[in-house]
Amino acid sequence: MSQTVSEPRCELGMVGLGVMGRNLLLNMADHGFAVAGYDRDQAKVAALRAEGKDLDLIGTEDLQALVDALKAPRAVMLLVPAGAPVDAVIDDLATRLQPGDLIIDGGNSHYVDTDRRAAGLAAKGLHFLGLGISGGEEGARRGPSLMPGGPREAYQRVRPLLEAVAAQVAGEPCVTYVGPGSAGHFVKMVHNGIEYALMELIAESYDLMKRGLGMDNAGIHRAFLGWNQGGLGGYLMEITARIFARRDPETGGDLIDAVLGVARQKGTGMWTTLAAMELQVPAPTIDLAVAQRDLSALDRQREQASRVLARPLGTSNGDPEAFLLQLNQAFQVAMAVAFAQGMAVLTAASERFGYQLDLAAVARIWRGGCIIRTSLLEEIRSAYGQQPGLPNLLLDPALSARILAQEEGLRAVVCEGARVGVPIPGLMTALSYLDGYRSAWLPANLIQAQRDCFGAHTYERVDRPGSFHSEWEKE
Question: Quick one: which of 67, 114, 262, 379 has the most CB atoms within 10 Å?
Answer without folding.
Answer: 114
